[in-house]
Design brief:
Blueprint: E1 2-3, E2 6-7, E3 12-17, E4 24-30, H1 33-51, H2 55-71, H3 73-84, H4 88-105, E5 115-117, E6 129-136, E7 139-143, H5 149-163, E8 167-170, H6 177-192, E9 200-202, H7 207-215, E10 219-225, H8 228-238, E11 242-246, E12 252-255, H9 261-271, E13 285-289, H10 290-305, H11 325-340, E14 344-347, E15 351-352, E16 355-356, E17 359-362, H12 369-372, E18 379-385, H13 388-396, E19 403-407, H14 411-420, E20 425-428, E21 448-449, H15 454-460, E22 462-469
Parallel strand pairs: 7-8, 7-10, 8-9, 10-11, 12-13, 12-19, 13-18, 17-18, 19-20
Antiparallel strand pairs: 1-2, 3-4, 5-6, 6-22, 11-21, 14-17, 15-16
Helix pairs in contact: 1-7, 2-4, 2-5, 2-6, 3-4, 4-5, 5-15, 9-10
Length: 475
């Protein structure tokens, strides 16, 4: 395990399984509370030396990691397929986005700027000179989900380096391999730049490791990607220290009466099932205005029939196994519960080997997991509404609010969507799963707090420090 300046043996190992067939990919180290404490000890001791790294050094490290990712893209794709079971095309996108994230982060150290502030409003302050700068907040802990392990880890590690913060990353237990490879590469880049390797550490393990990493008062920032329930617990545990939470969603896609229905149908078929539906901004709730509901549904079913299910190593496959059998069983149960509650299954929702065929359900009622919660599987729920006003109301009637999309040819409706949808991002005529790593990303309500994207995460990982100078004492 990469802890301290070197590598420490883990107390045990556990197999990483290929979700397609259950075969063993590799044995991975499993950390414990003792190693978590050791990582915090090392990070806290190194916080000043990491904060003192020059702008040029931070930029050089970040750029070198980006170059190493680009050079090793092929093997990284194969590794991601093996440990996540995601389709090849999704793993290729993940590696490309990861590389871009590091390239974007390499620009951020030069943007850590402050400014002077006039403070001579009150008598006695006329001669004062005031300013502020942004300084590293301290030790960062990043806890990532299993679905995009390389990218999610990068969105926590790269901004921390840019900000001058030592960072400890905890990958999901099911997908530790790509994160460990990434941390090893970052440490090579740090060493090449003459920077301390302890700036980046990794600790694997279960919930007890995550708890230890979040409750220690020496940790300044906790950045978590995962479920709402765990995120709420982390926020309580680390208060009053800062928690950045990306907690998922049940993303809505609205189809207006003037939409290009063929384009919207293709968008739902791709945006609902990429990464086998295991994406927090995949299409889950599709809200269609009544006048076009029947035609849209027919077009959607035609598109879904063309979605290929099977071995994630094949380039044409779009839906592969979920991360494990427990996840598959849960999604099937949610489908069954929805049907019992009155929903109509229009397509899919059956086992195909270890996979689930892409499912379309209509009339899914409130109060069911498929409508209220994040399904994290290849399932899309349809609902018909009378008009655009009702569509907005239905979309907002959710405890989540990460991203949503609207298909319309009306500029007026597009702007109304941006103004009225209660989400962190509104995507017009594209899927809610569209994400640029150069853009601020995050949610409202139970979808979390804080923003990712290198520029915004660096701001989250820094604090302002005010400075006031009286040039001549006593005057």
């Amino acid at each position: 395990m990469p802890i301290g300046e070197g590598w420490r043996p883990a107390p045990r190992q556990a197999p990483v399984l290929f979700p397609w067939d259950g075969s063993v990919v590799a044995s991975a180290p499993v950390g414990d509370v003792e190693l978590a404490r050791a990582a915090i000890d090392a990070a806290y001791e190194a916080r000043r030396s990491v904060a003192a790294l020059s702008t040029g050094t931070r930029m050089a490290v970040l750029q070198q990691v980006a170059e190493m990712l680009h050079e090793n893209a092929g093997p990284l794709v194969e590794l991601l397929i093996s440990e996540t079971g995601k389709p090849r095309t999704d793993c290729e996108v993940e590696v490309a986005r990861t590389t871009l994230t590091w390239e974007l982060a390499a620009h951020e150290p030069a943007r850590l700027q402050g400014e002077t502030v006039p403070v001579d409003f009150l008598p006695g302050a006329e001669s004062l000179i005031a300013s502020y700068t942004r300084r590293p907040a301290g030790v960062v802990v990043g806890i990532a989900g299993f679905n995009y392990p390389l990218l999610l880890a990068s969105h926590k590690i790269a901004p921390a380096i840019a900000a001058g913060c030592p960072v400890i990353i905890k990958p999901a237990p099911a997908t530790p391999l790509s994160t460990l490879c990434l941390v090893a590469a970052v440490r090579v880049a740090l060493a090449a730049a003459g920077a301390p390797s302890v700036a980046v550490q990794a600790v694997t393990g279960g919930a007890e490791v995550g708890t230890e990493l979040t409750i220690d008062p020496r940790v300044a920032i906790v950045s978590f990607t995962g479920s709402a329930a765990v995120g709420h617990a982390i926020a309580r545990a680390c208060a009053p220290r800062r928690a950045l939470l990306e907690l998922g969603s049940n993303s809505a896609l609205i189809v207006c009466g003037d939409a290009d229905l063929a384009v919207a149908a293709r968008a739902v078929a791709s945006g609902g099932f990429y990464a086998s539906g295991q994406a927090c901004i995949s299409v889950q709730r599709v809200i269609v205005v009544a006048g076009v509901y029947r035609e849209f549904t027919e077009l959607l079913l035609q598109e879904v029939a063309r979605v290929q299910v099977g071995d994630p190593r094949l380039p044409t496959v779009r839906v592969a196994p979920l991360i494990n059998e427990a996840a598959t069983d849960r999604v099937l149960q949610w489908i069954s519960d929805a049907v019992v509650a009155g929903a109509k299954k229009l397509a899919g929702g059956r086992r195909v080997g270890r996979c689930l065929s892409p499912a379309i359900l209509a009339d899914v009622p409130d109060g069911t997991g498929l409508w209220d919660e994040e399904v994290f599987g290849p399932v899309v729920a349809l609902r018909v509404v009378a008009d655009f006003d009702e569509a907005i109301e239905v979309a907002n009637r959710s405890r989540y609010g990460l991203q949503a999309s609207v298909f319309t040819t009306s500029l007026a409706l597009a702007h109304r969507s941006i103004d009225e949808l209660e989400v962190g991002g509104v995507i017009v005529n594209e899927v809610p799963g569209f994400r640029s790593d150069a853009l601020a990303y995050g949610g409202v309500k139970d979808s979390g707090i804080g923003r990712e994207g290198p520029r915004w995460a660096v701001a989250e990982y820094t604090v302002t420090r005010a400075a006031v100078i009286r040039p001549v004492a006593g005057r």
